[in-house]
Amino acid sequence: MFSFEQLEAFTATVETGSFSAAARKLNKVQSAVSQHIINLEIDCGVELFDRNGRYPKLNKNGQKLLPYAQATLKQHKRLVNNAAILFQDNQHDITLAIDEGIPVQHLTTALASVCERFPTVSFECLSASSIDIIPLVTSKRATMGIMFSEPQIDPQIDFESLGSVAFDVYVSSQHLLALNKAPHLDILLLHRQLVIRSKSHETSSFQQAYSPDVWYADSHYVLLELMINGFGWGMLPVHIAQPSIDDGTIVRVPVEFEKLTWQANIDVIQHQSLTHCPAHAFLRENLRQLYS
């Protein structure tokens, strides 16, 4: 019969590329990891790795087993997280991490409803880039996050879509890019780009660096200030850029391809251990209705 230790050793070896790296990840000795995988192969009746090279390579049998092992471990984590709170008070205070690029007027409306329904719940709000919000929720420093969608999040986190925010490409009205309509987007590569990046140096899936000359910030408002003062071009949520467009300090980058605006999806994320918290569920319900 398979054990969770066997499945953990198996998936960790696949993810890290070697038995020794898997052992370090799992804080075990290498012999224990190797033995777990040998026992798993005995239980399966087949070998799961090709061991002829320097590092173990997943074979066809291992490739077939891997998604089932990963799914089983995810469900096990969900079971552990939910079992831990079965006999506790299931109402928790709310610590919300939100990307400042997301409008907050809907948030305050939702919080008013939560306060009315759950008057004893305490609230804390943290401002962070979307990439930084994921580890905040994973570590439970934040109990909930509102962020721009990312394709990869921790398996212990649940998420749902709330809506979207419009983004566009802007530059100072005094910048060279603003003086003439460019024939193509490649002209942007000749000028410094301003990009949002997390405190861990990661960039969002839709906020990539394209220019060879890039400056970074973890705040859309810092990015806007750099933009206003002519340090480069960048992408901003339309609602943040609009006041500066209205006063003429920045403009949409003028190019022949006019339709640069795109919609970035907004997600609300939450640690699985808080699935049954009524205050968090009520806040999610209100956010879903308001942002949509």
From TrEMBL:
<dbReference type="InterPro" id="IPR036388">
    <property type="entry name" value="WH-like_DNA-bd_sf"/>
</dbReference>
<keyword id="KW-0805">Transcription regulation</keyword>
<dbReference type="GO" id="GO:0003700">
    <property type="term" value="F:DNA-binding transcription factor activity"/>
</dbReference>
<dbReference type="InterPro" id="IPR000847">
    <property type="entry name" value="LysR_HTH_N"/>
</dbReference>
<keyword id="KW-0804">Transcription</keyword>
<feature type="domain" description="HTH lysR-type">
    <location>
        <begin position="2"/>
        <end position="59"/>
    </location>
</feature>
<dbReference type="GO" id="GO:0000976">
    <property type="term" value="F:transcription cis-regulatory region binding"/>
</dbReference>
<comment type="similarity">
    <text>Belongs to the LysR transcriptional regulatory family.</text>
</comment>
<dbReference type="InterPro" id="IPR005119">
    <property type="entry name" value="LysR_subst-bd"/>
</dbReference>
<dbReference type="Pfam" id="PF03466">
    <property type="entry name" value="LysR_substrate"/>
</dbReference>
<protein>
    <submittedName>
        <fullName>LysR family transcriptional regulator</fullName>
    </submittedName>
</protein>
<keyword id="KW-0238">DNA-binding</keyword>
<dbReference type="Pfam" id="PF00126">
    <property type="entry name" value="HTH_1"/>
</dbReference>
<dbReference type="InterPro" id="IPR036390">
    <property type="entry name" value="WH_DNA-bd_sf"/>
</dbReference>
